[in-house]
């Protein structure tokens, strides 16, 4: 299915941004610190915009995933052991960049006994140690439902705990091999129970063949399981071998879903064709804080 005009326009603009000096500098500094980003590994269409503004979402724990979701561009085979120097290098680069907020994520690491939770926690701690005041948002895999792994991450004190539901219950089996809709919801609910002071966040992609009723039901499920923040974006197939796009939603439809989500009770929601889980994460966090704490 060819890209609609609104996607083509954005992708072109991003390509121009990518050739700019600021983007090249961001890419150089990431390489200099031996850090990967999900912006590159997942072929994010916002890379030009974010890199030109000195923003990136780190991909910790390597670039190889132990699962095989049919929507995802990350490589699937046997991963390497965690790099113990990675959390400090991330903290150092963030200090250099002077950012106020950072999102970092990992491929699913079912090969590690704690799913990589201690590496996530170490990354939060090292970032906070070197960058007091910087807010962190670990976007975690489901750790196979292991409570102790979730606790490890939460006890490191992130500002937001992210875990994406990605799609509706009915499409989970087709699109997210190895994942489980209920397990993801339970993770969010458990996080809220263990640390009610930490915002929970999730994201859903549209365009995989879901109906409006299924989207609404997924948003209801997320709210019922304590999810505070939400992102809604268009699924774009990374290649012809990935799950095909079934529908391109218009910018107006995205805007309607964003409004609906806020009305339903999310503390903040961002919705648009190129919205990704880490897109404008600081603004979303600030909107939620304003709503809950008035600051
Ligand atoms: S939206 Fe997120 S993943 Fe995409 S380029 Fe920006 S920071 Fe990276």
Give me some keywords for this one:
single chain, 295 residues, alpha/beta, 12 helices, 44% helix, binds iron/sulfur cluster
CATH topology label: TIM Barrel
Please indicate the count of domains.
1
Radius of gyration of CA atoms, rounded to a whole number = 18 Å
Elements, N to C (H/E): HHEHHEEEHEHEHEHHEHEHEH
Helical content stands at: 40-55%
Average pLDDT level: 94
**Span of the ends, CA to CA:** 44 Å
The count of helical stretches stands at 12
Class by helix and strand content?
Answer: alpha/beta
- Name the poorly predicted regions: none
The distinct bound ligands, ions and cofactors come out as: iron/sulfur cluster
Q: Would you report the number of β strands?
A: 10
CATH homologous superfamily assignment = Aldolase class I
- Residue fraction in strands: 5-15%
CATH architectural name: Alpha-Beta Barrel
Describe this structure in words.
The chain is an alpha/beta fold. It has a single domain (5-293), classed as Alpha-Beta Barrel (TIM Barrel), CATH 3.20.20. The protein is 44% helix and 13% strand. It contains 12 helices and 10 strands. It has a 4-stranded mixed sheet with strand order 1-2-5-6. Strand 5 (101-105), helix 6 (117-130) and strand 6 (135-139) form a beta-alpha-beta unit. The radius of gyration is 18 Å and the shape is globular. It starts with a helix and ends with a helix. The mean pLDDT is 94. The protein binds iron/sulfur cluster.
């Amino acid at each position: 299915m060819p890209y609609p005009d609104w996607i083509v326009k954005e992708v072109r603009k991003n390509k121009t941004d990518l050739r700019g000096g600021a983007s090249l500098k961001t890419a150089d500094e990431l390489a200099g610190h031996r850090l990967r980003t999900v912006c590159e590994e997942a072929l994010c269409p916002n890379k030009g915009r974010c890199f030109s503004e000195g923003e990136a979402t780190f991909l910790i724990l390597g670039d190889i995933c132990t699962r095989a979701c049919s929507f995802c561009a990350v490589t699937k085979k046997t991963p390497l052991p965690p790099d113990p120097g990675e959390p400090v290098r991330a903290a150092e680069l963030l200090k250099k960049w002077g950012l106020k907020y950072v999102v970092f994520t990992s491929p699913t690491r079912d090969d590690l006994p704690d799913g990589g939770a201690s590496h996530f926690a170490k990354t939060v701690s090292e970032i906070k140690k070197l960058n007091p005041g910087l807010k962190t948002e670990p976007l975690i895999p489901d750790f196979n439902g292991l409570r102790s792994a979730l606790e490890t991450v939460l006890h490191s004190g992130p500002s937001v705990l992210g875990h994406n539901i990605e799609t509706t219950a009915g499409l989970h089996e087709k699109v997210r091999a190895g994942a489980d809709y209920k397990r993801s919801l339970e993770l969010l609910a458990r996080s809220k129970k263990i640390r009610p002071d930490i915002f929970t966040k999730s994201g859903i992609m549209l365009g995989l063949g879901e109906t409006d009723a299924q989207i609404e039901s997924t948003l209801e499920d997320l709210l019922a399981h304590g999810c505070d923040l939400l992102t809604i974006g268009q699924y774009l197939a990374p290649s012809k071998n990935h799950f095909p796009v079934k529908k391109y939603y218009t910018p107006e439809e995205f805007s309607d879903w964003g409004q609906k989500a806020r009305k339903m009770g999310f503390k903040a929601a961002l919705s648009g064709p190129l919205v990704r889980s880490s897109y404008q994460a600081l603004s979303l966090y600030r909107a939620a804080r304003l709503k809950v704490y008035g600051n």
